[in-house]
Design brief:
globular; 51% helix; mainly alpha; 6% strand; two-stranded antiparallel ribbon; 255 residues; single chain
């Protein structure tokens, strides 16, 4: 699909290995988030050195996004965040009380925590959509105040593909294989990335499943919450889902 930069590929692979080895020694949330940030930085460097120049991607930026890649990522993260929010509320959880993302006025920390699980699927969608869709110079426009955005012509193409992808979303924690280091002897040979056999499933089902697992975990660490959980379930049965009609203003937050 894309020709991958060898050095950036190896740096990303080493970052993954190094982070995994350091996880057991992490003592606080700040250190854990720091490790996550290091891997994310290596990933975006890999993209910057491997994506075609026409997309003008030099790294992650947002609010506003400055290039087509960041525009698609920001939009995708916002859309997946809205679906996560609905799943969280439907299970009776408070979207503002998170674990990794700390409480902050106006921040739905639990939604951000759960969205992290599905970010890789957004990145995968972006790579495939830009590669497979015939886009001309009019597909994106740029303004100083709003940055880079999809044009009216490109939006239907995006949302049609996004809607179809929701039925075949990559399963978190399951991949088609290990991420290997490339041999230095092959440094002069560009690496062609083929499509992995990544297991897929219906996005809403996976979201609800992940949130339900979280709720069960929370019951084990706080037995007193079981009674509260039962009361919430009774309230949801009486009043309805509680998430219908809610229009999320969630923006992607990577802090």
């Amino acid at each position: 699909m894309y020709t991958v930069d060898l050095a950036a590929n190896n740096a990303f692979a080493l970052a993954l290995v190094g982070t995994t080895n350091k996880l057991s020694a992490v003592q606080d949330i700040a250190a854990l988030m720091g490790l996550e940030g290091q891997v994310a930085q290596s990933w975006f460097v890999l993209l910057a050195k491997s994506l075609p120049f026409k997309w003008k991607f030099a790294g992650r930026n947002r609010r506003p996004p400055l290039d087509p890649v960041n525009a698609i990522l920001s939009l995708g993260y916002t859309l997946i965040g809205a679906e996560v929010r609905q799943a969280v509320i439907s299970q009776g959880l408070d979207p503002a009380l998170g674990f990794l993302h700390q409480d902050y006025p106006g921040r739905e920390s639990l939604v951000l925590d759960m969205t992290e699980v599905f970010r890789a699927g957004v990145d995968d969608f972006m790579l495939r959509w830009l590669h497979d869709t015939e886009l001309d110079d009019g597909a994106f426009y740029f303004r100083e105040d709003t940055g880079c955005r999809l044009s009216k012509i490109a939006r239907p193409l995006f949302y049609q593909a996004w809607g179809a992808r929701r039925y075949r979303w990559p399963r978190p924690f399951e991949t088609g294989g290990e991420y290997d280091l490339a041999e230095e002897d092959d440094s002069a040979i560009p690496m062609e990335v083929s499509e992995p056999e990544w297991p897929v499933a219906l996005l809403p089902e996976m979201l609800n499943g992940q949130v339900m697992q979280l709720r069960e975990y929370m019951k084990h660490i706080d037995p007193e919450a079981v009674q509260v959980d039962e009361e919430v379930e009774d309230a949801l049965i009486t009043t309805g889902n509680g998430a219908d009609g809610i229009e999320s203003g969630l923006e992607d937050d990577e802090d």
